[in-house]
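Hi V.,

You were right to ask for the full record rather than a summary. Here it is.
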Amino acid sequence: MAFCGRRAWRGARRRTCAASFRLLGYRPDRWSPLQSLRVLQYMTFDLTYRTDAAYYETLRDRLGDGAFRRLYPRHASGLFSPIVPPARQPPPLPQAPAGTTSQRRDENARKGGEQASNNENPSSRPKRPPSAVGRPSSSNRPPSFERAQATLEMHDDFRKSLRGTPMHGFTPGNGSNNWAVAGSRSTTGRPVLANDMHLSLSLPAVFYEAHLVTPEVNAYGAALPGTPTLVAGFTDHTAWGLTNTGADVIDHYALALTDDGQRYRFEGGTRPLRTVVDTIEVNGAAPVIDTLYYSHHGPVLMEKGGAEEFGAVALRWVAHGSSRTLEALYRMTRAQSAGELRAALRFWDTPMQNVIYADSSEIGIVSAGRLPVRKGGTGAGLLDGSTGDRAWTGRVPFDELPQARAPRRGVLFSNNQQPTDSTYRHYLNHDWITGYRSIRIDSLLARKPRHAPRDLARYQADVRSMQRAVFAPLLDTLAAGDLSPRADRLRRRLLGWNGTMATDRRAPVLLDAFYRTLRPLAWDEAAFTGVPSPEDAVLHQLLTEAPRARWLDVQATPDRREDAAGLLRAALEAAADTLSARYGDAPRPRWGTRHKVLFRHLTQNEALRSLWRGPVSYPGYDATLSPARGDTATHSAAWRMVVDFSSDPPTGRGIYPGGQSGTPFSPLYDLPLKPYVNFEYYDFRKPRRPGDLSDEDVLSRVTLKPE
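Predicted structure:
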């Protein structure tokens, strides 16, 4: 393997070490294929590991089962376009309730014809609530369950302290985009595929560009350092791109330990805990000796309680099993057609990904990976480990995974939204994010009959806020006389703007103030303290379908009870006050003065800020197609690619936020950053032989030879 050869070359030069390793005080060991597999397993950790099950138990206790199911539905309650298209045409984006004072559309959005659509397939059937099997009610939970919940909460608090570091794991809301148009929907008459994967922005970057050539392969795309194949890319025959499925592939089981702490109760008897003593080497300090515990469910998280009692939580996670994903990627780079690439996805195990693919005549998508089949149907919350009522019994067969081929609409896309509507038979997850990006790309792909490759690249740079599109029609229903002059000016400015979060616009500052005010006011009840609040799709549903719901009442005004209109007025007034206090009578700043992107060194060490780049002005917002969360974004598209099948072989263009060198003194350390922030793409050159490159195209050559 190439990385083994690279490490052998480095091993012969023990005194020479990359700057990043010297900064860390670390000298790498000789590389082996096992390390490459560990890199892929780390990506499973980063994209699937979560520890928030205990907080859903807290929410059930606080809200009751009925309110919990309403506010945290198992299926997305709206505001998303599913990956697998429903049979019928999508209805339009939800508008203001009928009978309101005004239902006029934003003039700019109307002229542009960019009204977003919603592909959800509504059903009159009541949604099946999550099963209560395997979860004790709060009234009859044994003390061991409460201690296990406290242990899991402690573990989750620790994990939250690692947010922004490589050891944090899955973060809801982070994601990626991919879409493809069939030949019938492209200006070239051949498919076009686009993919931008969203990960942390760092130098060196998460990905690097790789061009792999063997007698059987000519592939170009994004690779993870340490792995021998491409994660996403294209060959002479096919192309593919990824987004994270976000499926629930991890369960937590509360264990009831015996008095000696060496066994746990299961199905009326007890079973022994298996122990393994591990030695953890610590740089610059003595090794740490740790005892690891294992149950038949999986490894055990264990902490001592206040009375020297143990709270124990067993973990069942797909990452603890074997994975053939590297074999799947190997086969994908060798696929001669879309059908062969889809067949290669049968070997994909972890992490579960929405893999979009294309060849010169076909497009398709599969939510590929190991999706557990569980007794009891779902895995939401902390489960009772003393029974087998929530055991895993297998995996969903490949042909029953969410997928589509050559759809009638001629387009496919995924943006980390719920892959299917509520009719899908298998449990996928219970806390889907609001699908703002999915309804935006759905609207862009639906607005004209054919799309050019440059259009798909332009959609990757799109920064139209769907928060504005969703909530503006509701603001339009408010009577001006019920608002202060300042709040009404804010309302009118939001209505008179098309929602583009561009750096030279002032209105994004206004939307940000309103949106950051609305959510805390809506979910200001004590029940939501310290736990995840409901998604925007739920809030929108309450505002439009249950305008007098008790959740819309503002707790800070006990003398009156707000309905939907009252909540919106309160949010406008508070946001207007915030803007006035911050900026006075001066013009509001342009978005680019507030909103930046920052490329930190991989170590994220503040002492190494000279190795960081930025912050620089950057467009976008939370959940725009080009994402940029927070005032200083450190997470966005880590790879952008568009592949055009109008020629043989296909061609590609793209950009990524990093350099091909991890050495800060190299010109290649940060070379692509300026074109990246300006959404400027370059051609991916994929010659079959090195001799096909001119001398001007070659910066250096490295030849690896077997020892």
